[in-house]
Structures are given as C-alpha cells and as structure tokens.
Design goal:
Helix content is 58%, strand content 12%. The longest helix is centred in the N-terminal third of the chain and has 78 residues. It has a domain of 148 residues: Trna Endonuclease, Chain: A, domain 1 (3-Layer(aba) Sandwich). It is elongated and about 85 Å long. It has a five-stranded mixed β-sheet with strand order 1-2-3-5-7, with helices on both faces. A two-stranded parallel ribbon has the order 4-6. β2 and β3 form a beta hairpin. With 241 residues, the chain is α/β, with parallel strands linked by helices.
Length: 241
C-alpha cells in the first residue's frame, strides 16, 4: 500500500512539474514572439520551398523514367514488325512490344511491370473506353501451346488488382482447354493469328472484339500445325513373324 501511495505521489509531482514547465515555455514564447516570429516564418518558408523542390525533382525524375520506358518499348516494336522476328525476341522485349502496341491502340496509363513478383500482370493500363486492364504476355517456342494453367495467374491478377478486363497475349496458339477456360472466365485471349493481324495494323478494338483464342478458321489452324507443330515420330511396323 505504501509503495502504491509513493508511486501516486511521484506521478502527481511529475505532472505538476510538466504543467509548470509548459506554462513557463508558453509565457516565454508569448513575451518573445515579437523577436522570434521572423525566424519562425523563415523556417516555415524554407521548409515549404524544400518540399516544393523535392516534389519537382521527384516528378521530373518520374517523367523522364516513363519517357525512357516509352521510347524503349517503341523501339522494340518498330524493329520487330513480323512474327518471325517476334519469335526470336526475349520475353521481356515481347512484353515491352505489347505495351507499345496497346499505347498505339489508344490505351492510356500503360505501364510495363517487368519485374519478378508481378503476380500475373505484365502490363497494366486503361483501355480507350475507360476500363482498366491487366495483361499477361507469354512468348513461347512456336511448337508449344498455351494451356489453361498458364492463364490462372492472370485470373488471380484481375481479382487482386480489381481490373475490369483481363487480356492474355501470346505468339503461339491456345489448346481447346485453354480456350474454354478463357471463355468461362471472360479472358480476352489473343493468339498467334490474331496477334499477327494486330501487328500488321488491325485496330485494337477489332482485335479485342474478335473473341477468344485468335486461332482463325480451320484452314488457318491446319496451316499453323503444318508449320509449327512438332512432327510425330512414325512407329516402325513390326516384321511379320
């Protein structure tokens, strides 16, 4: 009990001392205000100028960064206007190319994410009609096909980043299962034939409206298989016994 009483007494004395110190400090400020106010205003002004300079520097640096990124993306696109060249690109350049093509199509706020841990979003931006988009790009060897599993991260990215539209772009084709997955989950899938048409100048709105897959008709699909599919090894017939 005595210990608790001592603590309460110590706290009261401490609070009184703090109160007295605060009153004394306030009195000193009031009495000396006529002398110190110019210095206070100068300090506030310098802080404001410093904040403005820092903001301008950050803004200028961000503008230069985006301009450099835009120019790099456009250079990749200008140098690779054919599928044959696209197939030889590094996957990062393929993503840059898609970003440039989206910007050419009238999209705004287009940004290539281009880093590890992108959580399924390679490019982000806003479509000409105002809808936000998240884009995943896959550059595969031409004999490979996109399967439904390749699209799952994009579906998660659309949810995580609250995007209105999910777009999957590839230089190859989609399996039937991948097409169904895209249809069931409202993913705009741009495959090889549709990408080639877009690369040659088709309007973005027409590309997006073409639908899932971009495989073209059966004739186009057969041509693709003839050109890019791996030939199956023929089984040797066993000699008759």
């Amino acid at each position: 009990m005595r210990l608790m009483a001592r603590r309460r007494g110590w706290r009261r004395r401490r609070n009184r001392r703090l109160s007295v110190a605060g009153v004394v400090l306030l009195a000193v400020v009031v009495i000396s205000w006529s002398r110190i106010w110019p210095f206070v205003l100068a300090a506030v002004g310098l802080a404001g100028v410093g904040a403005l300079v820092w903001w301008g520097w950050r803004t200028h640096r961000e503008i230069r960064r985006k301009d450099a990124a835009f120019r790099a993306e456009q250079r990749v696109l200008d140098a690779n206007r054919s599928l044959e060249k696209v197939d030889k690109l590094h996957w990062r350049d393929f993503e840059r190319m898609v970003a440039a093509m989206l910007r050419e199509g009238g999209c705004t706020e287009v940004e290539w994410v281009g880093r590890g841990g992108d959580r399924g979003r390679d490019v982000t931006g806003v479509l000409p009609d105002g809808r936000s988009m998240v884009v995943q790009c896959k550059l595969f060897a031409t004999h490979r096909s996109v399967v439904s599993g390749d699209m799952q991260r994009l579906l998660g990215a659309r949810t995580n980043f609250a995007a209105d539209v999910a777009i999957f772009v590839t230089n190859t084709r989609f399996t039937a299962d991948a097409e169904r997955y895209a249809q069931d989950n409202d993913i705009i899938a741009i495959g090889r034939n549709l990408f080639a048409s877009w690369l040659k100048g088709s309007r973005l709105e027409h590309v997006l409206q073409t639908g899932v897959g971009g495989q073209g008709d059966r004739k186009h699909l057969k041509t693709w298989k003839r050109t890019y599919a791996k030939p199956r090894s023929r089984r040797r017939k066993k000699p008759a016994s």
